[in-house]
Design goal:
Layout lengths: L1 H23 L8 H10 L7 E4 L5 E7 L2 E7 L5 E7 L7 H10 L4 E10 L3 E10 L2 E7 L8
Antiparallel strand pairs: 1-2, 2-3, 3-4, 4-5, 5-6, 6-7
């Protein structure tokens, strides 16, 4: 009897794990048509993005352009929110590097993204870590801090 309970417990855990994974990666048929159409119009050469719905309700598409990874977010009505891709620290514009050297020299950069946003335009999101805390600062290419 105990053996059956143990087996049943493992099966239950496996089923729950599979269901959680389904939430993370959406079946392409569940992505709203308006979202797929906007994506195709914005990225006509990309035919097979991976989709998931995030905690804010945005539909995220994950895809590559010329070997670089991108993520584009869309509202359920198909409206585009933003597209971002990770870049290397040395790819930041010089004006941003200068501001970082002046104001954030004691902070460690953990991630840098170039973001094209429907509301904010193009900016760079730099994530710093200092004393166990993460901090995101958004910059314009000219070094202006926007958040």
């Amino acid at each position: 009897m105990k053996r059956y309970l143990v087996i049943l417990s493992f099966l239950s855990i496996g089923i729950v794990s599979c269901q959680e994974n389904k939430k993370e990666n959406a079946d392409k048929s569940t992505v709203p048509e308006a979202v797929k159409m906007t994506f195709q119009n914005k990225y006509p050469g990309e035919n097979d993005p991976d989709w998931k719905q995030d905690e804010h309700g945005y539909w995220e598409s994950h895809f590559k352009i010329d070997g670089e990874k991108y993520r584009a977010d869309f509202n359920a009505d198909g409206s585009w929110v933003e597209t971002e891709n990770s870049i290397k620290n040395d790819e930041l514009p010089e004006a941003i590097k200068k501001v970082i050297a002046e104001k954030y020299k004691d902070h460690k950069i953990t991630e840098v993204e170039r973001v094209d946003s429907a509301k904010k335009g193009i900016f760079y999101d730099v994530e710093f870590k200092q004393k166990g805390k993460n901090m995101d600062i958004e910059f314009r290419a000219d070094g202006t801090i926007i958040n």
